[in-house]
Amino acid sequence: MCRRGVAVFALFLCLVGRWPAVDGEDPYLYFTWNVTYGTISPLGFPQQAILINGQFPGPNINSTTNDNIVVNVYNFLDEPFLLSWNGIQQRKNSWQDGVAGTNCPIPSGGNFTYHFQVKDQIGSFFYFPSVGTQKAAGGFGGLRVNSRLLIPVPFPAPADDFTVLIGDWQAKSHKSLTRRLDSGLALGRPAGVLINGHSGRDAATGRDDPPLFAVKAGQTYRFRICNVGTKTSLNFRIQDHSMKLVEMDGSHTMQNNYDSLDVHLGQCMSVLVAANRPPRDYYMVASTCFTKYLLTATAVIRYAGSTTAPPSQEIPPAPTGWAWSFNQWRSFRWNLTASAARPNPQGSYHYGAIKITRTIKLVNSAGRVDGKRRYGLNGVSHVSSPTPFKLSEYFGITGREFRYQIIGDEPSKPDAPMIAAPNVINVTHRNYVEIILENPEPSVQAYHLNGYSFFAVGMGGGKWTPASRKGYNLLDAVSRHAIQVFPKSWSAIMLAFDNVGMWNLRSELLDRQYLGQQLYISVVSPTRSIRDEYNMPPNALLCGAVVGLPTPPPYS
Ligand SMILES: *[C@@H]1O[C@H](CO)[C@@H](O)[C@H](O)[C@H]1NC(C)=O
Ligand SMILES: *[C@@H]1O[C@H](CO)[C@@H](O)[C@H](O)[C@H]1NC(C)=O
Ligand SMILES: *[C@@H]1O[C@H](CO)[C@@H](O)[C@H](O)[C@H]1NC(C)=O
Ligand SMILES: *[C@@H]1O[C@H](CO)[C@@H](O)[C@H](O)[C@H]1NC(C)=O
Ligand SMILES: *[C@@H]1O[C@H](CO)[C@@H](O)[C@H](O)[C@H]1NC(C)=O
Predict the structure, then answer these.
(1) What's the Cα-to-Cα distance from 203 to each of 208, 243, 411, rounded to whole Å?
(2) Which residues lie below 8 Å from residue 113, measured CB to CB, with a gap of 6+?
(3) So which residues are the signal peptide here (predicted)?
């Protein structure tokens, strides 16, 4: 029952043999996943996709707060592969984060066993392949974390709980997308939108696909909607049904009703939907927003006993415009009284009162390096290194591999030429930091931070100035892990850097991320103590400059 790493106090209790669940023998969920190529035809023509155990999207993980999740991933692709766990905080454990800066990729024909705990978290998340442009080929799936039995959930248990993965979809294979980007071409517009791997209609006949979801009149259902796409924000709605928002990126929200929701790249939202309309089929709709083109996917929701009433062909249009979406964002509030597991309850209740120790302003830009299209943050276009930064730190060879802070906390001269280099900043452990994401470009941006939740406190048009802080929500901003930045606007987030590790902050737009609009944030514990960070796991894959180096002494 007792595991290594327990505090002395807990160890004592373990030895005495009472209080069995002190450091948790939290339950274990085991998975073995085979990652392969397969052929799918979501848009009516065959395409190569990445499957997990033959499925696209991949299997759902249904877990409960503090469960240990063990996934042995076998890579049967002809190229390296890694999975990352969008929104799972990996407390003290960036070893399992599954991105190029923390993990060596699983070589073709190899396997790696992820082992992590969904510590103090609840809500709706997903996993996805993080290498290159593989996410454009699938390999993603839902990951839900239920509240533990004794923790009250701020709404009645729904009759069923559905995962709805929405995302734009490309007609080209991920390898051809990679070649395009490598040669300096743009990714190009997506060919369609998918809901759980389907566009909703048979391309040849125009007939609706079979219903994706079945409901019974009089019951209420939970839908967990995540945007797993590569390029576009999506508006989500259900014909004739209102949606009560209850959770977003792992936090319970104030339960407002919406006719439609903008779900930006990398974001997840849970809504409750009452099946309170006349029994027939209804469309669920996901369509591109903030785009010059309009691509739409539908999925049929069937009321029990409604096989004879097809859905109305009037598909509700999405609202348009910056102002509508901005106002919707402003209506999102954290439910401060709802109980739920959270990593840092004391800090989070009063986040508005904590003194900011550092402000980092990151401005995205498009540019050219060696004549080829690149994207960057504060003038630096990130390139990953053959040695994951986390391993370079652990083995003490950072000086050879990369430099910290080649960008400043403010962008340098706007007309300075873009440079391509590993972009790693370092933040003092437990510092409370404000990050401004400023977008001078005419397209919507979306960012995701690994390892943390942050408070999305403010947004506004134009450039951020210190006076913009007057408009911050310092009381009940939603604690989340992904945030959009509207065209020619800024978004402000705040967080305490209390999770030691190497953490990726990235654009969720796949072409921008691939071509450098991302960076890593290093948070080190000067004490090398297992209180702050777990040791490198024994099965860690090694690559690059750390191969053959003596293993450093473990943390104590
Ligand atoms: C995974 O692949 C191995 C080796 O081909 C096979 O034995 C196993 O049954 C596969 N597992 C699943 C779940 O497909
Ligand atoms: C998910 O787990 C919860 C809690 O253990 C359980 O009640 C529910 O039936 C599970 N759902 C599925 C689809 O397995
Ligand atoms: C690969 O799978 C084997 C068999 O389950 C396991 O023992 C081994 O630890 C895995 N490799 C890694 C690097 O996790
Ligand atoms: C907030 O959560 C509480 C449960 O603690 C619930 O009773 C209340 O209805 C929720 N408030 C809103 C506005 O959703
Ligand atoms: C960042 O790393 C550099 C080089 O190790 C160090 O000199 C500096 O103090 C660090 N800064 C912070 C905020 O940790």
Answers:
(1) 9, 29, 47
(2) 70, 71, 72, 73, 539
(3) 1-24
Residue in the structure block whose two tokens are 């003194």? 355
Kindly report, residue by residue over 372-385, the tens digit of the pLDDT. Answer: 999 999 999 999 99
State the ligand closest to the CA atom of 161.
2
Determine what percent of the chain falls in helix, strand and coil, rounding each to the nearest 5.
Answer: 10, 40, 50
DSSP three-state, residue 412: coil
Fold category of 3-146 in CATH: Immunoglobulin-like (2.60.40)
CA quadruple 12, 16, 18, 23: dihedral, nearest 10: 30
| CATH-assigned architecture of domain 351-534 | Sandwich (2.60)
**Residue 539 CB–ligand 3 contact under 6 Å:** yes
Q: In this structure, are residues 174 and 182 in contact, taking their beta carbons and an 8 Å threshold?
A: no
Enumerate residues 6+ apart whose C-beta is below 8 A from 288.
Answer: 168, 190, 193, 232, 233, 234, 235, 294, 295, 296
3-state SS class at 294: coil
**Helices (H), ranges, 183-321:** none
Q: HSE on the CB side for 552, CA within 13 Å?
A: 15
Contacts of 278 (CB under 8 A, 6+ apart): none
pLDDT tens per residue across span 186-206: 889 999 999 999 999 998 898
Atom number in ligand 5 closest to CA 405: 1
**What CA–CA distance (Å, rounded) separates 143 from 165?**
11
Kindly tell me the sign of the dihedral angle through the C-alpha atoms of 41, 46, 49, 54.
positive
Give the percent of the chain with pLDDT over 90: 86
Compute the distance between CA of residue 265 and CA of residue 320 in angstroms, rounded to an integer.
17
Amino acid at 298: T
**CA 139 to CA 144: how far, in whole Å?**
17
Nearest-atom number in ligand 1 for the CA of 33 is: 13
Smallest Cα–Cα separation from 390: which of 514, 512, 535, 497? 535
Residue by residue, DSSP assigns 115-169 as EEE-TT--EEEEEEE-STTGGGGB--EEEEEEPPTTSPPSSPPPSEEEEEEEEEE
- Which atom of ligand 1 lies closest to the CA of 53? 14
Which neighbouring-strand residues pair with 83? 129
CATH class of 160-330: mainly beta
The CA 543 to ligand 4 mean position distance, Å, reads: 49
Q: Angle at the Cα of 166 (from 161 to 169), degrees rounded to 5?
A: 150
Phi, psi angles (nearest 5°) of residue 213: -135, 140
Query: What is the whole-number distance in angstroms between the Cα of residue 161 and the centre of ligand 2?
Result: 9
39 CA distance to ligand 1 middle (Å)? 18
Strand, helix or coil for residue 220 = strand
Give the tens place of pLDDT for each residue, 400-434: 999 999 999 999 887 789 999 999 999 999 999 99
Please, what is the Cα angle at 282 between 165 and 264, to 5 degrees? 30
